[in-house]
Design goal:
The chain is an alpha+beta fold. The chain is built from 26 helices and 25 strands. Strands 12-11-16-15-14-13 form a six-stranded antiparallel beta sheet. β6 and β7 form a beta hairpin. α3 runs antiparallel to α4 and α5 packs antiparallel against α6. The longest helix is centred in the first third of the chain and has 52 residues. It is flat, with a radius of gyration of 42 Å.
Length: 872
C-alpha cells in the first residue's frame, strides 16, 4: 500500500474509532440519554463497540487495500446493531433527530464492510467516515439535554480534532523517517558487502604464498617442473590443505601447467586459462610481486590471488601460484547471514553474475541500471522497485578500478511493518487518551450534577426536620462553602465509625493473609499452643508427615509428630509445656508410614502479651520442617557428575601426558613416534569430544546454541562418517554407509550433525564388543524430511534401559566399575541436536539383537533456527 493511501486509511479509521469509542462510552455511562430500555441500549453499545473494534483492526492491526473478513464482519455487525437500537421507538429518549441520524449511520457503517471486501479503499473509507460523522452528530444532539453529557460530548469532539490532526501529522513525518532510515541502513549494508567482496582476495593471498613455497620446495619451479609432477603436487596440496579453494600453476609464459581437482570440478575448466592470461598474472611474472583482485573469468565471479615463485638460485620468476575462490551463492549467503530479509547480487555488464538467494537473480531494469551506475564509479541513491528496496555499491579490483557492483535488496514489508506498528501505537495512545478524557469529563459532570442534587435534597430534608444530613461535598468553591457547615455536625461520629470499621477490616484482612501464607508455604508448618496441642497444620505438613489436618489439629503434638533430632532429643518434647526451644536450624529424622525422612527443623516461640522475649514457650510454638531429600539427591547427582567428568577427562589426559613425556625425554624411532603421535591425537580428539559435549549442554541449557546452517550433501555426510569410524575400529567391526539416491542437499549445522553421528557410531561400536556390521544410512522420510540412521548388531537394550536412554547423565551401568565409560550424554545430545534443527529421534532396540537409532530432520531451513541461537 502506498504512503498516501495508508495515511488516508489511517485518518478515516481513526475518526471512526474515536466516534464509536465515544458512543460506546456514552452508552455505558449514560444510556438513558438515548433509551431507557436495556435491549436497545445494549444493541447500541455493542454496535459502537464493534465499530470501534473494526476500525482498530483495519487501521492498526491488519491494514490492507482490501478489508479482512474479520473487519467486514465487525462492520456489518456494527451496522445491524445500530439499526436495531435506533428502530426501537419504545423507551427512546434521545430525540427524533438523533434517532433519524443513527439509522443511516448504521447503514453506512454496515455498507463499508462489503465495499472494503472488494478492495475499494477510498470508497470504503469515505462511506465509513460519512457513517461516523452521522453517528457523532446524533450523539452530540442527544447529549445536549444534560450538563454532564454535554461536557463529555465537548471533550470527545475536541479530542477527536486534536488526536486526528496530531496523529496524521506524526504518522506522515515518522513514516518518511522510517523509510529514509531503511534506505540509509540498506545503503550502508551495500557498502559493507562491496568492501567485503573487494577485499576477499586478501584471505587467499596467504594460501597462494604457501602453494608457491610448497612447489618451490619440491624443486618444480622452472625447467625442472614437469606437468605431471606439478599436477601431483597441486592435487596433494589441495586435498590436504586447500580443499576449499581452487589452485592453478602458471609458468612464466602464461601457460597453465596444472590445476587442482576442485578448480576443474567446481569452478570450471575454462576459468584457469582466462586467469592465466590476465594482467594480474602477467604483472606478477614481470615484477615478481604478489597481488590479487576480484572480477569475472569465463563468466564466473571470482576473487584471485597470485604469488610468484623464483627459479632456485636465480631472481627470475619461474611460475605463479594462483588461488581462486568463487564469489558464488554460498559466499554471498555468509555476507548476509545475520539478516534473513536481505538478498544480495553481484552485477557486471548489466547482468547478475552471482546472487543469494536464487530470487535475487531476477532484478528489475531500474535495479540493474543502479548497479551499472555503481560499477561505473557513480554512487546511485537507494531506490524502491515494486515491493522491494535496493541499494548498490561499487566493487573495486586489485588495481582500484571498478569491476562490478554489489546490489543489496530487502522487502518493502520492513517499512510497511514499521509504519503499521506506528499506526498501532497511535491508535493505542488515542484509545488511552480518549478513555481518560471521557472519564475525566464524566467525573466533572457527575460532580456538578451530584452537588446540585445533594444541595437540593439536603435543603428539602432539613426543611422537613430530618437530622444528621450530610452532603459529602468537599470542593473549595461556592458549593463546597455552602455544604461545609452542614457536614461538620456529623464529622466526629463518622470518623470514629470509619476508624472502627477500618480496624476490623484490617484485622480480617491480616487474618486472611496469614491463613493464605501458611496454607501456601512450601515447607511443613506445625503450630502448637502453650499446652502442646496442635493449633495449625498446613498442607505441606499433611504431605510430609502423611497425617491430614483434620486428624492433627486439636491433638497433642506427641501423638501426630514423631521425630528425633540428631542429638537424640525428641522433637515433640520440645513443643510441649516446659520444653526448651532453641534458635537456629537443627536436623532431625521424621518417622512416617513411608519410612524415615531427613528434615531440617526451625523452632520459634510465639510470645504472649505479658511474656518477656525468650521466657518459656509463651502463647505457643511454631515449627517449620523442611524436607532434605531433594538437597541430598542433588548432592548425590553432583558427586556422580563430577566423578564421571573427572574420569572422562583423566583417562585421555593420562595417555596424552604419558606419551608426551616419553617423546620429550627419549629418542624414539620414527615409526614408534608416529604411532605415539597418533595415539596422542586420538586421545586429544576424545578429550575434545568430551569438552564439546559439555559445551553443547551448557549452551543448549541456556538457550545459546547457535546453528550455522548451510547446505550439506547427505551422501557425503554418511560416507564421511563411515570412513571416519572404519579407520578407528578393530578388524572385527565393519562400518559401512548406505545412502538412498536422490536425496537433495539439506540445510543443517554440519558440526553438530557430525558430532551426533559420532555419538551414535561410538555407542554402536562400544556396545558391539564382539564385532559385527554397523550401518550408517540416509533415506527420505516423507515429503520434506530426511532420516539418518545408525544400526548395529550388538547387545541391544532391555525395555527399562531404552525408556531412560534419552535422560541426561543416565547409563545402563551407573557404577564406577562399569565396563564402558562416558557421561551418559550421548543420546541426549543427539536428541537435542535433532530438536534444534526442528527434527526428532526414534529408538528401536532389542536385547541381544542390536539397536537402531534414527534422526529425522527437515530437508529445508528450520523455521526455529538460522544464524541465531536455537532452542534445544
Amino acid at each position: 500500500m502506498g504512503a498516501p493511501a495508508a495515511q488516508f486509511q489511517f485518518a478515516a479509521e481513526m475518526v471512526a474509532f474515536l466516534v464509536c469509542l465515544a458512543g460506546a462510552t456514552l452508552l455505558a455511562l449514560r444510556a438513558p440519554l438515548l433509551t431507557v430500555r436495556r435491549g436497545p441500549a445494549g444493541a447500541l453499545a455493542l454496535g459502537f463497540a464493534a465499530g470501534a473494534a473494526g476500525a482498530f483492526v483495519h487501521g492498526a492491526v491488519q491494514a490492507a487495500d482490501a478489508a479482512p473478513p474479520a473487519v467486514v464482519g465487525l462492520r456489518v455487525a456494527a451496522g445491524v446493531l445500530l439499526l436495531i437500537g435506533a428502530l426501537a421507538r419504545k423507551g427512546w429518549t434521545g430525540g427524533p433527530v438523533a434517532r433519524a441520524l443513527l439509522m443511516p449511520a448504521g447503514l453506512l457503517v454496515g455498507a463499508a464492510g462489503p465495499i472494503g471486501l472488494q478492495g475499494s479503499l477510498y470508497a470504503e473509507e469515505a462511506v465509513l467516515v460519512a457513517g461516523a460523522a452521522l453517528a457523532g452528530t446524533a450523539l452530540v444532539g442527544a447529549s445536549r439535554r444534560a450538563i454532564g453529557a454535554r461536557l463529555t460530548a465537548t471533550a470527545a469532539g475536541t479530542l477527536l480534532l486534536v488526536v486526528v490532526t496530531l496523529s496524521v501529522a506524526l504518522s506522515t513525518v515518522l513514516s518518511g523517517t522510517v523509510r529514509d532510515d531503511a534506505f540509509r541502513r540498506l545503503q550502508s549494508r551495500a557498502a559493507s558487502v562491496a568492501t567485503a567482496v573487494t577485499d576477499s582476495w586478501q584471505a587467499d593471498l596467504a594460501d597462494a604464498k604457501l602453494v608457491a613455497a610448497g612447489v618451490q620446495g619440491l624443486g618444480l619451479v622452472g625447467p625442472g617442473g614437469s606437468g605431471p609432477a606439478l599436477q601431483s603436487a597441486l592435487t596433494t596440496l589441495s586435498t590436504q590443505f586447500f580443499s576449499t579453494v581452487g589452485l592453478a600453476w602458471v609458468d612464466d609464459q602464461g601457460r597453465v601447467l596444472a590445476t587442482s581437482p576442485r578448480l576443474e570440478a567446481t569452478i570450471g575448466a575454462g576459468v584457469a586459462p582466462a586467469v592465466a592470461g590476465s594482467n594480474l598474472v602477467a604483472r606478477s611474472v614481470q615484477t615478481g610481486q604478489p597481488g590479487g583482485t576480484v572480477g569475472l573469468a569465463a563468466g564466473r565471479a571470482l576473487d584471485v590471488a597470485a604469488y610468484p615463485a623464483k627459479v632456485a638460485g636465480s631472481n627470475a620468476v619461474g611460475g605463479v601460484a594462483v588461488v581462486l575462490s568463487p564469489l558464488d551463492r554460498s559466499y554471498l549467503s555468509a555476507l548476509v547471514r545475520d539478516d534473513s530479509t536481505l538478498g544480495v547480487a553481484l552485477v557486471a555488464g548489466g547482468k547478475v553474475v552471482s546472487a543469494y538467494p536464487a530470487s535475487a537473480r531476477a532484478q528489475p531494469a531500474d535495479a540493474l541500471a543502479a548497479a551499472s551506475h555503481a560499477a561505473g564509479g557513480r554512487a546511485p541513491a537507494p531506490l524502491a522497485t515494486g515491493d522491494r528496496y535496493a541499494a548498490a555499491a561499487v566493487v573495486l579490483g586489485g588495481d582500484g578500478r571498478p569491476v562490478m557492483a554489489a546490489l543489496v535488496e530487502t522487502s518493502a514489508q520492513v517499512v510497511d511493518s514499521s509504519r503499521q506498528s506506528l499506526f498501532r501505537t497511535l491508535f493505542l495512545i488515542a484509545f488511552g487518551g480518549a478513555i481518560i478524557a471521557f472519564l475525566l469529563s464524566v467525573a466533572v459532570a457527575d460532580r456538578l450534577s451530584r452537588a446540585l442534587g445533594e444541595l437540593t435534597g439536603a435543603a428539602r430534608r432539613i426543611s422537613s426536620g430530618e437530622a444528621m444530613v450530610r452532603t459529602d461535598l468537599t470542593a473549595g468553591d461556592e458549593i463546597g462553602l455552602l455544604s461545609e457547615a452542614f457536614d461538620s455536625m456529623a464529622e466526629s461520629i463518622e470518623e470514629q465509625a470509619a476508624a472502627l470499621r477500618l480496624a476490623a477490616q484490617e484485622e480480617a484482612n491480616l487474618r486472611d493473609r496469614m491463613q493464605s501464607v501458611i496454607a501456601g508455604m512450601g515447607e511443613a508448618l506445625v503450630a502448637v499452643d502453650a499446652d502442646g496441642t496442635v493449633s495449625e497444620w498446613n498442607r505441606a505438613a499433611e504431605r510430609l508427615v502423611g497425617v491430614p489436618r483434620s486428624r492433627a489439629v486439636g491433638r497433642p503434638a506427641r501423638s501426630v509428630l514423631k521425630a528425633r533430632l540428631d542429638d537424640g532429643s525428641d522433637l515433640a518434647g520440645l513443643l510441649t509445656k516446659g520444653g526448651a526451644p532453641r534458635p537456629g536450624e537443627d536436623r532431625a529424622t521424621l518417622d512416617t508410614r513411608g519410612g524415615p525422612i531427613p528434615v531440617a527443623v526451625s523452632i520459634g516461640v510465639v510470645a504472649g502479651a505479658d511474656d518477656e522475649p525468650g521466657e518459656g514457650n509463651g502463647a505457643g510454638i511454631v515449627t517449620v520442617l523442611r524436607d532434605l531429600r531433594p538437597e541430598m539427591e542433588l548432592d548425590k547427582m553432583k558427586s556422580e557428575f563430577l566423578s564421571r567428568v573427572g574420569h572422562e577427562l583423566r583417562t585421555p589426559l593420562t595417555g596424552i601426558l604419558g606419551y608426551s613425556q616419553l617423546l620429550a625425554n627419549r629418542d624414539v624411532p620414527e615409526d614408534r613416534a608416529r604411532v605415539w603421535y597418533q595415539e596422542i591425537l586420538e586421545q586429544s580428539r576424545r578429550l575434545l569430544r568430551t569438552v564439546e559435549m559439555l559445551e553443547f549442554f551448557a549452551s543448549a541449557g541456556g538457550n545459546r546454541l547457535g546453528l550455522d546452517l548451510a547446505p550439506v550433501n547427505v551422501a557425503s555426510l554418511v560416507v564421511d562418517a563411515a570412513e571416519r569410524w572404519q579407520a578407528k575400529v578393530t578388524q572385527f567391526h565393519e562400518v559401512v554407509a548406505h545412502e538412498d539416491g536422490g536425496i537433495p542437499d539439506a540445510d543443517m549445522d554440519r558440526r553438530w550433525i557430525d558430532l551426533a553421528l559420532d555419538e551414535l557410531l561410538d555407542n554402536a561400536v562400544k556396545f558391539s564388543p564382539d564385532g559385527g556390521r554397523v550401518v550408517v544410512s540416509a533415506e527420505a522420510a516423507g515429503t520434506g524430511a530426511l532420516r539418518l540412521t545408525v544400526e548395529d548388531q550388538g547387545w541391544g537394550m532391555p525395555p527399562e534401559q531404552a525408556g531412560d536412554a534419552f535422560r541426561e547423565f543416565v547409563q545402563g551401568d551407573p557404577s564406577d566399575t562399569r565396563q564402558f565409560g562416558g557421561l551418559g550424554l550421548g543420546l541426549p545430545l543427539v536428541q537435542r541436536v535433532a530438536e534444534a534443527h526442528g527434527g526428532s529421534v526414534e529408538l528401536a532396540s532389542e536385547e541381544g539383537r542390536g539397536t537402531r537409532v534414527s534422526v529425522i530432520l527437515p530437508t529445508g531451513r528450520s523455521a526455529r533456527s538460522g544464524r541465531r541461537p536455537a532452542r534445544a
